[in-house]
Amino acid sequence: MVSERFPVTLTINGQKIVRDVEPRTLLVHFLRDDLNLTGTHVGCDTSQCGTCTILLNNQAVKSCTILTVQADGAEIVTVEGLEREHLHPVQQAFWEKHGLQCGFCTPGAMMLAAYLINQEGPLTEEAIRRQLDGLLCRCTGYENIVRAIKRAQEIIEEGDKERSQETAQSTWG
Amino acid sequence: MMKKEVIEMAQVIGQPLKRQEDIRLIRGQGQYTDDIKLPGMLYAYILRSPYAHAKILSIDTTVAKTMPGVVAIFTGNDLKDEVGLIPTAWIPPDSDLHVPPHPALAYDTVRYQGDGVAVIIAESPYQAQDAAFKISVQYKPLPVVTDPRDAVQDQAPLVHSEIAHNIAFHWRAGDNLDDIFSQADVVVKQQFRQQRLIPSAMEPRCAVADYHGATGELTLWATTQNPHIHRLLMSGILGISEHKLRVIAIDVGGAFGSKISCYPDEVIVSWASQKLHRPVKWTETRQENFLVTTHGRDHVEEVELAGTRDGHIQAVRVKVYANMGAYLSTAAPGVPTILFGLIINGAYKIAHASSEVFGVLTHTTPVDAYRGAGRPEATFLIERMVDLYALAIQMDPLDVRKKNLIRPDEFPFTNPFGLEYDSGNYQATLDKALQIFNYEEFRRDQENLRKQGKYIGVGFSTYVEMCGLGPSEVAGAVGFQGGLWESATVRVHPTGKVSVFTGASPHGQGEETTFAQIVAEELGIPIEDIEVIHGDTAQIAMGWGTYGSRTTAVGGAAIHMANQKVIEKARKIAAHKLEVNEDDVVFDKGVFMVKGLPARSIQFQQVALDAYLAWNLPPGIEPALEGTAFYNPKNFTYPFGVHIAVVSVDTDTGDITLMRYIAVDDVGKIINPMIVEGQVHGGLVQGIGQALWEGAEFDNQGQLITGSFLDYTVPKARFFPRFETAHTETPSPHNPLGVKGVGETGAIASTPAIVNAVMDALRPFNIFDLPMPLTPHKVWNAIRQAQLSS
Ligand code: FES
Ligand code: FES
Questions:
Q1: Plot region of A67 (φ>0 → left; ψ -120 to 50 → alpha; else → beta)
Q2: Which residue of A has its CA nearest to B201?
Q3: Angle at the Cα of B497 (from B494 to B499), degrees rounded to 5?
Q4: If DSSP codes are grouped into helix, strand and coil, which group holds residue B640?
Q5: From the CA of A142, which ligand is nearest?
Q6: Are B530 and B498 in contact, with CB atoms under 8 Å apart?
Q7: Which of A72, B42, B465, B634 could staple A8 via S-S, CB 3.0–4.6 A?
Q8: Which ligand lies nearest to the CA atom of residue A109 in the structure?
Q9: Cβ of B78 under 8 Å from any chain A Cβ?
Q10: Nearest-CA distance A172 → chain B (Å)
Q11: DSSP symbol at B1
């Protein structure tokens, strides 16, 4: 209970962050309260709901289940870091396919989706449903989340095609 | 549905446009209450009773007060003379209702596990919690009752000593049907348990209060479905004038009824902020959400149905013990009475019906509205009874439905309790569902599979619900202590862009887009030029919020009326400018034209600018362009539909697999089909959740044993097949948009469809009813019992 503080260094959404934190501070609270990255939400205290999901060294991780000091040195992406110049394919797909209603589970759902579409090969609908096990959404009935993840894969494929065409052209040019 | 790049004006209604609110939400830039952080903000932690019933002997806060960061600790005794009681705002008439006193913090007796006894306010949430562990409370445990039937017995412990037999109210509707039942050919009796459910919105509740000593103003950010109702109630509880109170709820992370109520927690932080002159935040943990955020359903129902041998239903009656929990939550008494007891005949033409309801207090978490509120319970009752009746007379359950459904030429239809169903074509929804689902083929498959020892079943459910809650006269007549109209202001800016202010307070249902579509269509302006503002009592004078699928039917209609006022004034200005008579000006797709001379025209945006410049307005016309309307609906609206569920039961494990789910709903005119479909999906998952997995349970000491997501199954993605949804459109005749309301349909129709399907699958075992949720263990046990006794 003595609030001794420990230094941590993290890269969050591409930015290096150095802070002193209480060792018991959960990563999700550090993100929300210390860094004002309130896009990551807290929905439970049992690691069930997945609304707090972020990418930690490219893995989908529940940020309510890890202490900030444990994440020392890690590279973290939160929902605020998804978008660069354009909406991330996952954001675009959730929007197009109505993958959100109240939007509370959505940042976590999208981070999980971003992780899933980075995996080898396209996922079947059934596989997506299974992979969504770590996520609770009370609004959408999941169907449109599933559609959104499939759509995100398509957008990436389309993007890859475009990019390879662009490369091809520039090689010829 | 195809998305067009350019959507032609005047075709905005009916298009599956992407939602406007999503832009901030997918960027993580929503403004949920817990995202609010104010300078100097303190954090509250509420210490709660571990006992369901106990006397508080003493509370010792001496150590806790010295803990780091602690600013103040208050107990029930500190609050009790300074803040009012937590109110009950629905007092059904003729029900002899007793409202037990509900203090914000218990000071004498705790009455359910989770009842608050003290609040710790500290510089950080971790510090507040640390200090809470150092408070020692001495309790004397008292006897507990959790079941509503036990609670009315003579020897049962009383939840509130002044309420005899724990009966908070006794309400009846309908006639005495003894003669009809004694003379009927067939009488079917069944007892149902509508188990208790936990709404489980993904966003826990939260409240941030900020009191300014100098102005005497209190701003409260809160997770609420109805900020204006909150302001009204809080004003009474805290003794602050309404105009000094501001309630804000911009983004709310789901609610499903559980954020209608006024809760002790928001009263506590408001009062604490007043005391300490600093902002105070309280954020619910999930554990608290399970324990103290209102639960839903929880009835024991004794039902009887009378009919002829050839399938004609004559009468239905029910006696209900509705478990209200330890206190009467804000809207709670209206749910098992008005919203349930008056519609138990469902979509059927049944000449006689009667309801009798005991609202019973127990040592459990208070219940209140939960998605569908009363109507799922009513639909379950009649839809299960139809199947049991069909079984009794050896008729196909689909044929019994066909025989008794209200016919299209019978609308407006007055049900046995006097409710007037506005419009409907129930046969059309059934026909459409049967186009998707080949019933005969299914029965053949079922027969063949049974021979191989595989058991599949089909369940039908028809439903009708009352939505679009209003008019205010009815609200008064049924004892709802509020109005049920809605307000809208359509403010056109000098550039022709529009801000819409609505008193409805959507929280995930997509009305920022639905409402913008109404304005875009009617004013003929691009949807991007419209913003919809809600959830802030400082910006919107008055409104009644979002619940009971009323938002588009009532709030949308108010916007339509406000649009008409805008157009009316703009037409005058345009006529003046075009130098013609007002009657000679037509307005179409955003352009005012002289009749017969389309070349002489003026754009809506130009008129807007003229209205603000006011250099040359017609005589008697005030500058600026906006319309405000207050729409008080003529009646409820009555969405309806037919759902079909197909399941298979694994007799070795009791596992139920949902194979197909078909939902054909008629929600009146559809503004945005994508949003409507999304609402149906969400409702289905909750309704199917009730049938198969969800159920709150207390042990005999009143301990909630399903107190986390580990013990209470909120459905997951892999539990479901792809839903098959379709619609018919029968407009409501009495609201200007023809809309009816969709938010609850899925939750209403799906529960009985699923249970009927499982019972159909289990027919070879002579299992005709099982209590929900139909967990594998329960199903497996029933099958084993059946096999042993055969
Ligand atoms: S907040 Fe629920 S899993 Fe992290
Ligand atoms: S969109 Fe509301 S919880 Fe998922």
A1: beta
A2: A138
A3: 105
A4: strand
A5: 2
A6: yes
A7: A72
A8: 2
A9: no
A10: 33
A11: -
Both tokens of B317, joined, read 């009656």
Inter-residue contact B319 to B148 (CB < 8 Å): no
- Cβ–Cβ under 8 Å, residues B408 and B315: no
Cβ atoms within 10 Å of B597's Cβ, excluding its own: 11
Name the CA dihedral angle for B311, B312, B314, B320, rounded to a multiple of 10 degrees. 40
**Which amino acid, B7?**
I
Tokens of B652: 């070795």
Which of B19, B37, B508 has its CB closest to that of A139?
B508
ipTM of model: 0.96
Dihedral in degrees, nearest 10, Cα atoms B516, B518, B524, B525: 0
Closest to B580 (Cα-Cα) out of B592, B588, B569: B592
**Arithmetic mean of pLDDT over chain B:** 96
* CA–CA–CA angle B644, B650, B653 (5° rounding): 135
Helix (H, G, I), strand (E, B) or coil at B743: coil
Query: How would you label B430-442 residue by residue, b for 16+ Cβ within 10 Å and e otherwise?
Result: bebbbeebeeeeb
Which residues of A are less than 8 Å from B681 in CB distance? 140-144
Amino acid B471: pLDDT: 86
Residue that the structure tokens 């412990």 belong to: B157
Place of tokens 């009383």: B158
- pLDDT, one tens digit per residue, over B530-567 is 999 999 999 999 999 999 889 999 999 999 999 999 99
Cα torsion B290, B296, B299, B305: sign: negative
- Specify the 3-state DSSP secondary structure of B460: strand
Residue B705 burial (10 A CB sphere; 0-12, 13-18, 19+): exposed
pLDDT value of residue A125: 95
Exposed, middle or buried: residue B243 (CB in 10 Å: 0-12, 13-18, 19+)? exposed
Top residue of B3, B15, B21, B26 to mutate, by most chain A CBs within 10 Å, is: B26
- Cα B607 from chain centroid (whole Å): 41
Q: Determine the average pLDDT of the residues in A141-168.
A: 87
CA within 13 Å, CB half, B522:
26
CA–CA dist B132, B60 (Å, integer): 11
Does the CB of B744 have a partner CB in chain A at under 8 Å? Answer: no
Please check whether residue B21 touches A, CB under 8 A: yes
State pLDDT tens for residues B616-670: 999 999 999 999 999 999 999 999 999 999 999 999 999 999 999 999 999 999 9
Find the distance separating the first CA and the last CA of chain A, reported in whole Å: 66
DSSP string, A90-125: HHHHHHHTT--SS-SSHHHHHHHHHHHTTSSSPPPH
The span from the CA of B759 to the CA of B697, in Å, is 23
With CA atoms as reference, the chain A residue closest to B2 would be A96
Q: Name the E strands within B293-369.
A: 296-307, 313-325, 352-361
Q: What is the dihedral of CA B55, B56, B57, B61, to 10 degrees?
A: 170
* Residue A101 CA to ligand 1 centre (angstroms): 19
Q: Whole-angstrom Cα distance, residue B751 to residue B742?
A: 16
**β partners of residue B197:** B296
* Alpha carbons B13 and A96: distance in angstroms, whole number: 18
Q: Which residues of A touch B32 (CB under 8 A)?
A: 38, 41, 104
Burial class (CB in 10 A: 0-12, 13-18, 19+), B474: middle
Q: Is B142 exposed, middle or buried (0-12, 13-18, 19+ CB in 10 A)?
A: middle
Lookup: tokens for B604: 């809506």
Report whether the peptide linkage leading into residue B773 is cis, meaning its omega lies within 30 degrees of zero: yes
pLDDT of residue A161: 77
Local confidence band at A167 (pLDDT 50, 70, 90 cut-offs) = low
